[in-house]
């Protein structure tokens, strides 16, 4: 059983699901979403569809396959896979006991779950490397702010089974390709080597020696980090700690020959791809599992929080989670953060909003019945169709069609129904004509195909 500090207490209240509402209940709780979460409404969700489409298309072009893992996992997976001294595990995880008194955690990131799936489903027995991507919700108890929520969504990739430097460059190149497809410019790749199990202890000792006489000046969190994980001090956002760390020993200064060779080759492959980068000796990332390459992609002109993607190599993680020694590397980017960046950069996705192709305006009981039947037939043919359900006047229905931005409005009344014809109004041209009802599907299919 993991350390209790990561868990919520188990109480009978967790299992009282059928308690009736009582007088005095705060009904606001029933109509207000939890802090740090968002409703993604029509008009916005289409932008998400577009982002996901771009991510999936680029991954397909690069030979990556989608994986979907559970939203919750055993807490032990994240204690081992993310690191007990990380902010995620110490402060941010949503952990609870289930009915079997097992410790469960809503996933705070995607890599540990993907590693678990790789091992459990024996993907290592297939031809290597294994190249995967995921898109889905993650959960961290964090302070909500612009682009940062307690339920948030990540797009990420993982590559298992190859430690070749070209894989590092490919992963960075894939991330840059996604961002470029979204028309983002001013990308800057910051990259560093964070060492390996052979050379990292030397760097950690150098950090402890460097910060020991500065301990009282560090923030409270970094004072605790000094003996637990001094590398995290370099990742602190406190201005005081950042200033104290300015002359601290770098990971590269302690890198062993193997790490230096690997890093140099990664940079050469990035040069071959024409990807601009900055070697940033202060970059260490916030998770314990990184080895060798660590990187972030920054977008210029969006403020202080300019990192939009981060990742790195984690060659010891699969072994740490119970598998055989297997190299791995990946990245993640937050979808909310990405949408906010696109908005800040003035990249308008509103043109991506979808509209029905057809609106059927019907007046009278019998025409309404015929319109209902016709709408269903059009939808089955793949023609997006909307109609009135509130018995509005013809004028109100035509206004509704205009607001929806349809290509065609079909007008059906008793006279049209008797003649087995329907009035077709092409909205862009404000032209209308009469078409036999039996020919309307063919007419619309031809017209919509021409418009496409």
Instruction: Report the β-strand fraction as a percent range.
Output: 15-25%
Gyration radius, in Å: 28 Å
CATH level-4 homologous superfamily of the largest domain? Bira Bifunctional Protein, Domain 2
Trace the largest sheet across and list its strands: 1-5-6-11-10-9-7-8
CATH fold-type name of the largest domain: BirA Bifunctional Protein, domain 2
Helix content: 25-40%
Distance between the termini: 59 Å
What's the shape?
Answer: elongated
Q: Count of DSSP helices? A: 15
Instruction: Domain count, please report it.
Output: 2
Global structural class: alpha+beta
Report the CATH architecture of the largest domain: 2-Layer Sandwich
**CATH first level of the largest domain:** Alpha Beta
Number of strands: 16
Q: Assembly type of the shown chains? A: single chain
* Biggest sheet statistics: 8 strands, mixed
Average pLDDT works out at 89
Low-confidence stretches: 8-17
Describe the structure in your own words:
The protein has 452 residues and is an alpha+beta fold. It folds into two domains: 4-199 and 255-344, BirA Bifunctional Protein, domain 2, CATH 3.30.930.10; 355-444, 3-Layer(aba) Sandwich (Rossmann fold), CATH 3.40.50.800. 36% of the residues lie in helices and 20% in strands. The chain has 15 helices and 16 strands. An eight-stranded mixed sheet has the order 1-5-6-11-10-9-7-8. The chain has a five-stranded mixed sheet with strand order 13-12-14-15-16, sandwiched between helices. Mean pLDDT is 89; it is low at 8-17.
